[in-house]
Amino acid sequence: MIRLVKSPILVLFHGVAHTEIIPISHANTHNPKMESSQIPIPTPIPSPIITTPLFQIRPYHPSDVTSCTAAINSNSPLIAKYMRNTFPNPATLAGTETWIQTCMEATFSPREILINYAIVSGDEFIGSLGFKPMKDIEYRTFEIGYWVRHESWGKGIMTAAVREFVRWGFETFPELERIEAQVFDDNEASAKVLTKAGFLFEGARRRAGYKPTLGGLFDIRMYGVTKGDVFGDKA
Length: 235
Ligand SMILES: CC(C)(COP(=O)(O)OP(=O)(O)OC[C@H]1O[C@@H](n2cnc3c(N)ncnc32)[C@H](O)[C@@H]1OP(=O)(O)O)[C@@H](O)C(=O)NCCC(=O)NCCS
Fold this sequence. Notes:
By secondary structure, this protein is an alpha+beta fold. The chain has a domain at 24-173: Aminopeptidase. The chain has six helices and twelve strands. A hairpin with a 7-residue loop joins strand 8 and strand 9. The structure holds coenzyme A. Residues 12, 79, 82-83, 146-148, 153-159, 181, 183, 187-190, 192-193 line the site of coenzyme A (COA).
């Protein structure tokens, strides 16, 4: 799920923008200063919103361009396989720069809190995850999306990241009631991540997906978790 969209989402893939773009100078997690390029340079690297022994989840920073590009290109065909058709394969520095700028600007209106984040371990860029707020009657639902660089697969990183990010989302956005994910019907790793992170399988949207590189049409599996599922009676 990298290109300039109005609202990003790394869901099973990256999607169409659904949020209002807030000027970076209004975002509360940055202290931007403008340099010669168009990208505002926040100083220093933003603090994590989530810290675990394995990784940190923090806002994107312009200095992530090279390492984020390398993370995608660790195996872009395999990572892109289960992402939206717009996910880069391979990634380019210019495309990643555009994506990062989008991530530094896209917030959930009216809270002006960023919705796309980098997963890092110290200086190492490991992966990415984010929310796409829905609209209209689905206003209280976010879609989640994510990917991990290939050499970090199978270490429990995304299971832990999704579990923590979901809790953070419900705690940070009081109006948020439900988080959902859409998964390609044969993406067993992602299905396992979601199930282990507390999501329920809710059914399949038959033949809803179309990806020429995967041979055409496929079912999309729906997973969801509610605030009550996570916090029980305290929700
Ligand atoms: C899906 C993805 C994010 C998982 O990240 P990860 O950090 O490797 O996930 P974890 O290590 O936390 O857990 C993955 C689980 O799936 C299992 N798994 C991995 N590959 C699998 C496969 N091909 N078939 C079945 N299970 C698989 C792992 O064994 C693990 O389960 P376990 O803990 O019971 O052993 C990663 O594979 C990825 O980036 N894929 C490409 C992009 C993508 O699919 N994004 C999600 C779109 S919905």
